[in-house]
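A protein record pairs a chain with a discrete description of its three-dimensional fold. The following entry can be read in just this way:
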Amino acid sequence: MTHARTTIDAAAAWHAQLDSPDMAWDAFGAWLDADASHRQAYDAIALLDAEIGDAAPAIANLLPANDDHEDFDVSAVERQPGTRWRWAGLGISGAVAAGLAIMVVAPSTDSAAQVYVTGRGETRSVTLADGSRMQIDRGSHVSVSGGHAPVIEIAQGAASFAVRHDPSRVLMVRAGGYDIRDLGTRFDVVSARGRVAITVAQGMVSVTPTGGATTDATVLKAGQGLDIVPDKRIAQRRKIDPGRVADWTDGRLEYDGAPLALVAADISRYADAPLVVDPSAANVRFSGVLTIGDGSRLVDQLRAVLPIRVRRLDGVVHLGGTGPR
């Protein structure tokens, strides 16, 4: 067996254990640090896992009919975020059942607001009255009103949008005191723990403070993001990889040199306690893939690969620096 094959097999074995309560996080971190090829192999396995999940419906269509289960509707199976491909011994039909995601709900066309609340292990796909598509992340609270000119309010959590632009109507998303208007696009909005983040995969969006003048609008194009801390009136534009927009829909969070504060803000959507980055870790950056699962292991994944220490004080998780790893 070649060294490369052995490394891939080891990466797959570590990935399969991520949701285990007995996961050896220190050993995992030591394995990642032992050789640069280990981190590359692990990231490749995590991405492959997500791609298999994306392809699950197509795989299901290729499976032979099973007369004993002719009433089984594979499209109705919900994917449990964090369900990991068991790299040995899992039959393809079992893998498909484990990998399917999404519950489809079509809202009515009246102007009454409809509220969608997702639990920690649930995502939801919604077809809006104007034909646009909205994917809602775990742990989110989203309301929709406006019929064929939708107004979406994200009180908490995240949602991604695929919109066919129509000059006769505007789809608007409100989050954290800001209005995001589509200009024919595919984009993602996150509102969590006092932060708002907008990223654009295709087309453009305009962002203004709620009630602000259109002359105050910030226009984001594909490949751009805007991170906002409303209470501090801070907004920072950044470049992003359009292919990574709304990566949470694939059960992962992928980063390339992201500051720890940004990563912590993302993780906070799934954590059971607030996350704070201490000044000692302010300059720490992260590159790699985190697997969301049920959200309980995200901080452990970070701790395994970054020079940080984790402390829980008075119900708050503090991420502090430890120096070079």
User: Anything to note?
Assistant: The chain is about 25% helix and 35% strand. Confidence is low (pLDDT under 50) at residues 65-110. The first strand starts at residue 104 and ends at 105.
